[in-house]
Amino acid sequence: xxxxxxxxxxxxxxxxxxxxxxxxxxxxxxxxxxxxxxxxxxxxxxxxxxxxxxxxxxxxxxxxxxxxxxxxxxxxxxxxxxxxxxxxxxxxxxxxxxxxxxxxxxxxxxxxxxxxxxxxxxxxxxxxxxxxxxxxxxxxxxxxxxxxxxxxxxxxxxxxxxx
Length: 163
Hints:
By secondary structure, the protein is mainly α. The protein has 7 helices and 3 strands, in the order ααβααββααα. The chain has helices at 21-36, 40-52, 57-64, 68-80, 102-110, 113-122, 129-154, and strands spanning 55-56, 84-88, 96-100. α2 (40-52) packs across α5. The N and C termini lie far apart (43 Å).
């Protein structure tokens, strides 16, 4: 399979004993990330800042589900390209605020959103429209449950597996 996506070379690949739901989900996540490309984080950040305005780096990172180190690296690259500005808070020097520049707004406007939407839709073309609707419902249900569990964990409650 030269030139194709192989995932990582870790011994714990889903096809090597990790065929439970979580393993299959992890595999799909890796393939989806690969399919959408490395730079998708930059576009998501720029579009979010374009829509929402200035945000703290931490708030944006949590909203988009990006790791702190990755967020810092991407933000630095975007700033170097003149697409965003980073400003440290006067009250709390640890806090950094991000905002999109006019050049960043132009970048977002130039992207062919229809092309992006077509590509995202193609990713699920193996499923019928009915199957896509079921998958969407199931993913919403899982996501809502995981958010509740994380919130309870953050509140210090013990999370138990349902019986």
